[in-house]
Design brief:
Layout (H helix, E strand, L loop, with lengths): L2 E3 L25 E6 L8 H8 L2 H4 L3 E5 L3 E5 L5 E2 L3 H6 L8 E7 L1 E4 L3 E4 L1 E4 L4 E5 H4 L5 H14 L24 H8 L5 E3 L2 E18 L2 H12 L13
Parallel strand pairs: 3-12, 4-12, 5-7, 6-10, 6-12
Antiparallel strand pairs: 1-9, 2-12, 7-8, 9-10, 11-12
Helix pairs in contact: 1-5
């Protein structure tokens, strides 16, 4: 399984191995665990459809159908993708084989090698991981998403000029597919439908962390009093699956 990278944008950092997120609430302390979204989802659906998967390249409109966002609560280690994390993150979500799994994370520090990357994808396959801030770029975020989606169907090769598969994704001009790429994309199992009624289904997946945040002192006293009466006890656990 080959992973492809786009333009380098961050500094590599060493991270521990995969751990499942564990959120523990203690009634007798001044802190409770709560999910916080370190990444965020930007689909760029309108630009993807009109500028890249539209009539200019394909002669008809390919409909991009984004399913509702799924949130995965994980340890901070998986917010920055390092060696081994791609498969570990992919294993936490199981979708249809003809659906693209699109993960949004904080950073990607490994994709076939150490570095700073804005995107990484199966080539071919159906898994894509992108930096959420890069995907949200108002100038070229749609190019990044199309580039990585392209790898899932076109494989490892990069293009040149204004081709979507140009290895440098930070240009709004890179919106073209050539005739050979169009033919390959239309023959992919990820493109469903027949004739001019084609569509691609995408599962957007937000990768979130669990952080400890303070709660007001008065609430702490209340929880302590309730705990002393034996009305509440133990701890709660939230685990990503």
């Amino acid at each position: 399984m080959t992973k492809l990278s786009a333009t380098a944008t961050s500094v590599a950092r060493a991270r521990p191995t995969l751990k499942t997120a564990l959120v523990v609430a203690s009634l007798l302390t001044s802190f409770v665990a709560a999910p916080t979204w370190a990444a965020f989802v930007t689909t760029q659906e309108a630009k993807l459809e009109s500028l890249i998967f539209g009539t200019t390249n394909f002669g008809f409109q390919i409909d991009l159908r984004f399913n509702p966002v799924t949130t995965l609560v994980v340890d901070d280690e998986l917010l920055d993708i390092n060696q081994g994390d791609f498969n570990a993150l992919d294993a936490l979500f199981t979708g249809a084989l003809n659906t693209i799994e699109l993960f949004f994370v904080d950073a990607i520090s490994y994709c076939g090698g150490v570095g700073g990357f804005v995107g990484c994808a199966d080539a071919p396959g159906n898994t894509v991981i992108v930096s959420s801030s890069a995907a949200a770029n108002t100038s070229w975020g749609h190019v990044l998403l199309a580039h990585e989606i392209g790898h899932t169907m076109l494989g490892i090769a990069h293009g040149a000029g204004n081709n979507v598969m140009n290895g440098n994704v930070d240009s709004a001009l890179h919106v073209d597919f050539d005739a050979g790429q169009v033919s390959t994309i239309l023959g992919s199992n990820l493109v469903q439908g027949i004739g001019s009624n084609r569509f691609i289904v995408i599962d957007p997946i937000l990768v979130s962390s669990a952080a400890v945040v303070p709660i007001p002192g008065a609430l702490v006293l209340l929880l302590s009093a309730i705990g002393s009466l034996g009305l509440l006890g133990g701890r709660t656990r939230q685990r990503a699956t």
